[in-house]
């Protein structure tokens, strides 16, 4: 799991526009979403090791990761499709 301090450092203001910078930002954004999912699972009484396994198998499908993370944290229904409809630039 990516440390929050490292995520804050890498997700700060854009100083360079390059492929490696984009890949780093994407990787840290996924790391942050993984942390959100982990917190949501733990708040819903999922055991630590089981929560880690769920995150390992979920990170490959980013829309599912977003839906699960926000659904667990907010206790409301959240779908990636609804977010794309409501916010035009959500998935761009």
Notes on the structure:
The chain is an all-alpha fold and 92 residues long. The protein has one domain. Helix content is 68%, strand content 0%. The protein has five helices and no strands. It has helices spanning 4-10, 19-43, 48-58, 62-74, 80-86. Helix 1 (4-10) runs antiparallel to helix 2 (19-43) and helix 2 runs parallel beside helix 4. The radius of gyration is 14 Å and the shape is globular. The two termini are 25 Å apart. The mean pLDDT is 75.
Features of the shown structure:
mainly alpha; 0% strand; 92 residues; 5 helices
The largest sheet is: none
Strand content: under 5%
Order of helices and strands: HHHHH
Total domain units: 1
Q: How helix-rich are the residues, as a percent range?
A: 55-70%
How many helices? The count is 5
The low-confidence parts are none
Rg for CA atoms: 14 Å
Number of strands: 0
Secondary structure layout:
Blueprint: H1 4-10, H2 19-43, H3 48-58, H4 62-74, H5 80-86
Short description, anyone?
This protein is an all-alpha fold and 92 residues long. It has helices spanning 4-10, 19-43, 48-58, 62-74, 80-86. Helix content is 68%, strand content 0%.
């Amino acid at each position: 799991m990516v440390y929050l301090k490292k995520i804050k450092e890498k997700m700060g203001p854009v100083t360079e526009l390059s492929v490696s910078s984009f890949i780093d930002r994407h990787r840290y954004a996924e790391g942050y979403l993984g942390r959100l999912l982990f917190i949501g699972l733990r708040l819903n009484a999922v055991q630590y090791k089981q929560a880690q396994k769920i995150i390992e198998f979920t990170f490959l499908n980013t829309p599912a990761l977003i839906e699960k993370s926000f659904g667990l944290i907010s206790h409301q229904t959240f779908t990636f499709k609804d977010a794309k409809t409501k916010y035009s630039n959500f998935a761009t």
